[in-house]
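Annex B. Sample input.
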Amino acid sequence: MMIFMEHLNLGRRNPRERPPLATYEPIQTSARPNSEVDNEEVRARLPVIIVLLVAVMAFVFVSGRAGVIAIVLGIAVLALRHLFAFRR
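Annex B, continued. Sample output.
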């Protein structure tokens, strides 16, 4: 039992003693901060998103299991198009 307790203690004599936390620098994944992302980049991806949503909607509608989900996805596509139409 003592060996098991030492295993849980991970070699520390005082269980309340904690190892120092490592400090990591945040990794910047792009050349620009996130606040400077262009709307043009988002608009360039929008047709791909719409095509994927329509493809999922068609698959669900053809499968016949949940036509309601297809209708909701269609409304979501229209809402996205409406939302981005005001930003142009």
